[in-house]
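Q: what sequence does this backbone want?
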């Protein structure tokens, strides 16, 4: 196609300005004058909502080059097979899940294949939502996940790899199912695999799910697959990574959490997911904003390698560094990946054997005993986490805001840590006395955690003071309600 002359480009820009000020909808104006067509379609094709059932029309629809140039956002719904009313009342079978996986994988592959055939000049935002267009009942989808390939036995390596095309023109990817009963859970490895197709990606938002309590083997395998894929991600342009990976804390603190980090032989290991996420955040040289929320089950290795946690030399050549990190947010669960808790039982746990301490979960779930007696921080578990966090913060030279939460839903036993750079506002009234002209590090311990300023190790507090600088402020608070 011949290049437009400067006068033709100017005329097109003027038409575009005119069309943008015309009343909505814009599409009828294309029939007024043929010269209006590119200007009108630069607006109508700027953001496009596409269902997987309409994928065969995509090549024809975007055959004109000006439509491809106009496109900046695709909201892509993968429509999965519907179920009759009888099937909706039951959990998905393995056959159901494999059929859904095939539809999901084929739709993603077809879309990415088409986008890969376009020129790489435009920066496209892709939002992917898998859903079934039928009202599910009885928690049909609660324990099923969408994979790109067939699930294999654990000894065969978990999820089968699927080859997807490289798509250079996607700069933002949102794997964020709509918050309604029609949307479905992704397998986390599937989202990471799709992300791997976008070498120029700048922004990634993943809405995932780690709340599989019924099948521990499945949960371990999905976490392991997720870790394996993100350990190989190469995203040199990534600036923002936001992950929701929720796991609800059991109401019954007498249970033993599942052990999520063992070798195939059953030998305890370091948590591969924490290590992989740590590696990913340090491997993306331009990463500025990192958020990992919704009570994620992680170990201290999200911040710092366990084998090196007591080493006092942060400036060693092999020490991790986050050269561009400006905002870091982490919301962690009370449970550890090793099958433990960050909290100890109360000294006076009281009586939780009465009928009043049973909770109805739903019609399809057994009732759960409510015995929330873990409120005291376990020094053996919490101290390595606090140390690893403190060491990591000192290796974020551009950090403006750091936010950490543990057990956020209990105001008496929560932990909240805020690191605030110069000019960053605080969120609690006690902070206002310090002003915003200096760096501040504020630690809040719930009144029943059993922790205060004297429980923080001296060298850890020294790391905080090193981060805030000579004029900065370090405060440790006990929060009472």
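A:
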């Amino acid at each position: 196609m011949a290049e437009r002359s400067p006068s033709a480009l100017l005329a097109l820009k003027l038409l575009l300005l005119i069309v943008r000020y015309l009343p909505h909808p814009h599409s009828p104006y294309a029939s007024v004058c043929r010269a209006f067509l590119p200007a009108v379609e630069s607006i109508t094709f700027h953001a496009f909502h596409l269902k997987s059932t309409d994928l065969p029309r995509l090549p024809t629809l975007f055959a004109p080059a000006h439509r491809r140039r106009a496109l900046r956002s695709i909201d892509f719904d993968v429509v999965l097979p519907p179920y009759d009313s009888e099937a909706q009342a039951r959990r998905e079978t393995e056959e159901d899940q494999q059929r859904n996986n095939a539809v999901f994988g084929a739709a993603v592959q077809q879309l990415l294949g088409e986008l890969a055939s376009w020129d790489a000049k435009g920066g496209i935002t892709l939002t992917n939502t898998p859903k079934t267009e039928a009202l599910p009942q009885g928690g049909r989808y609660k324990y099923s996940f969408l994979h790109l390939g067939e699930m294999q036995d654990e000894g065969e390596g978990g999820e089968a790899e699927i080859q997807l095309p490289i798509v250079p023109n996607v700069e933002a990817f949102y794997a964020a199912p709509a918050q309604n009963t029609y949307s479905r859970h992704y397998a986390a490895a599937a989202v990471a695999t799709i992300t791997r197709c976008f070498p120029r990606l700048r922004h990634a938002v993943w809405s995932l799910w780690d709340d599989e309590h019924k099948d521990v083997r499945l949960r371990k395998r999905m976490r392991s697959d997720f870790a394996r894929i993100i350990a190989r991600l190469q995203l040199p342009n990534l600036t923002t990574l936001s992950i929701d990976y929720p796991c609800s804390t059991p109401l019954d603190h007498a249970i033993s959490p599942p052990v999520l980090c063992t070798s195939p032989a059953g030998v305890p290991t370091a948590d591969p997911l924490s290590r992989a996420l740590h590696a990913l955040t340090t491997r993306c040289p331009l990463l500025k904003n990192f958020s990992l929320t919704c009570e994620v089950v992680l170990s201290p290795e999200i911040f710092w390698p366990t084998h090196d946690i007591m080493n006092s030399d942060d400036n060693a050549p092999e020490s991790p560094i986050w050269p561009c990190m400006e905002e870091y947010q982490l919301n962690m669960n009370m449970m550890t990946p090793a099958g433990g808790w960050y909290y100890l039982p109360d000294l006076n746990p009281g009586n939780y054997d009465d009928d009043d301490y049973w909770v109805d979960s739903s019609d399809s779930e057994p009732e759960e005993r409510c015995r929330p007696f873990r409120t005291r921080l376990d020094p053996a578990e919490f101290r390595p986490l606090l140390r690893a966090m403190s060491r990591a913060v000192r290796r974020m030279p551009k950090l403006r805001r750091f936010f950490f939460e543990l057990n956020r839903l209990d105001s008496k036993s929560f932990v909240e840590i805020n690191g605030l750079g110069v000019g960053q506002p605080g969120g609690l009234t006690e902070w206002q006395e310090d002003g915003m002209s200096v760096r501040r590090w504020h630690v809040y311990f719930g009144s029943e955690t059993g922790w205060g300023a004297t429980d923080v190790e001296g060298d850890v507090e020294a790391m905080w003071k090193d981060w805030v600088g000579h004029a900065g402020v370090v405060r440790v608070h006990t929060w009472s309600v």
